[in-house]
Amino acid sequence: MKAIQLIWNKAFLIITLCFIVIINIALASNDYDLLYMTLAVIPVCLAIYFMLLESYHFILLITFLAPLSIPINLAGGSQLYFPSELIIGLFTILFLAKNLHTLTINKRILTHPLTLILLADLSWMLIACIFSNIPLVSFKRLFVRCCFLTVFYFGFSSIIQSPQKFLKVFIAYAIGTIIPVIYAVVFLYRHDFIIMAHTQMTKPFFVDHGLFGACMAFITPFAVIAFLHFKGMNKLVLFSILLIVVSGLFFSYSRASWMSLCVAGVMYFLIWIRIKVPVILLSVSILFLLAFIFRNDIESYSKANDSVSNKDLFQHVKSVGNVKTDASNTERINRWKSAGRMFADRPFTGFGPGTYQFIYSRYQSHSDLTRISTFSGDKGSCHSEYLTYLSETGLPGFIIFLILVLYSFQIALKNIYRSKGMSNYLSIAAFLGLITFYVHGLFNNFIDSDKMALLVIGSLSVLMWVDNYLSDEDAKEIEQEKILTFDISKNVD
């Protein structure tokens, strides 16, 4: 094995020198086609090298590059986020080729209930693709989801073997956000920090401020846990990372992201005082019941609220409840109603994954149209994870997604209440991150972005891995008790 490693290291050095020579030749001869081709091949070679010999470092590379990737236009109007999506695709091919050939994927990963739910979700997506109105779009979306699950779920849980290493993966993501956050803050500074500039400040790294804010909210619990409990890095470095992430969250001006983190904070308080799972579920049910009882008062307040998103921060926050004149809110309602009408038209299979934005325009009602409404399908999608599932995959897909949400709650709380040390801290961070996603999912849908999918599916991988790890620890304790009992009885005799 050492001989193979030595050969690979020498080959890596030789290939690196060759790339340097080719780049210099291209620059000297002004041959930019050769230069661009060489720069495109470098990530592929690095990916192959790391995947074959340094799989864990390859994962760190993917998570670090995800927030830094930028869109590149391809033929046919498609986009590729480079280099993260290219490396994810390559990782998928290499991982499947390696593991399907040797059948080395842990059976406990494959048979875990969380895995079965994710595979059920994937299977129903396939059925929805078959009956899709736009099959090409749907099968593309299915392929992307398969890649995400392969890398962020099966890849993570198969290669990463300690809670400390899992936490490093999310720290790498947080480090990757440093440049986008600085870029966004500088952009806002040049525009006097007016809130209306938020729509452009995150490009080209993030498609909009909503996705940027959602990712910042998701990674915040990991940054907090790393600062408080991780001993593998300097505290000043970890505090700086936390400060940058929180700054990014604040300057995202994403009201849904702020709200989602507040809900995660409330959930952490309930965990901290060790409220039982049934009590938490009962509390959530009571909140929904109160909202239903006082729905008329809430509706009256919303219609009376005339605050709109503008350069004033207080008015921006207050406009959350304005469903009368705030264009962002009223357009969301238009999209939600359109999704409901689509579901009513095709309740079983939906219109197919990824098709909402191309079809919903015909389901808009004239009375719901706003000044930012469109009929060309080029200004976002449903603005709700839940309604997207309902309109694109029908009732079965929506139910599977709800089961995934509820089961992730159950397994996360089980892990938190029976684990200690870094496993406990990691489970808390993953759970709170998922809470921000589930709450934010009421107002936006970002699961098909690699920047968000990495966090969501990676956190589900964390919960599954910790559950299997704790089961192993329980088995060891039981076995140790048996040995101890045997030894004691032997000594007594």
Looking at this protein, list some descriptive labels:
mainly alpha, 2 strands, 20 helices, 74% helix, two-stranded antiparallel sheet, 2 domains, 493 residues, globular, disordered C terminus
CA gyration radius, whole angstroms:
24 Å
Strand fraction equals under 5%
Q: Helix coverage percent of residues? A: over 70%
The span between the termini is: 50 Å
Low-confidence stretches: 301-325, 483-493
Instruction: List the helices and strands in order.
Output: HHHEEHHHHHHHHHHHHHHHHH
Tally of helical segments: 20
- How would you describe the shape? globular
What structural category do the secondary elements indicate?
mainly alpha
Number of strands: 2
Average pLDDT level: 79
Structure overview:
With 493 residues, the protein is mainly α. The protein folds into 2 domains: 1-104; 108-293 and 326-474, no CATH class. 74% of the residues lie in helices and 2% in strands. It contains 20 helices and 2 strands. It has helices spanning 2-29, 32-53, 55-65, 84-102, 107-110, 113-130, 135-159, 163-176, 178-190, 209-229, 235-251, 255-272, 277-293, 295-304, 313-318, 327-345, 356-359, 385-418, 421-440, 450-492, and strands spanning 70-73, 79-82. It has a two-stranded antiparallel ribbon with strand order 1-2. A hairpin with a 5-residue loop joins strand 1 (70-73) and strand 2. Helix 6 runs antiparallel to helix 7 (135-159). It is globular and about 70 Å long. The termini are far apart.
Spell out the blueprint of helices and strands.
Layout: H1 2-29, H2 32-53, H3 55-65, E1 70-73, E2 79-82, H4 84-102, H5 107-110, H6 113-130, H7 135-159, H8 163-176, H9 178-190, H10 209-229, H11 235-251, H12 255-272, H13 277-293, H14 295-304, H15 313-318, H16 327-345, H17 356-359, H18 385-418, H19 421-440, H20 450-492
Antiparallel strand pairs: 1-2
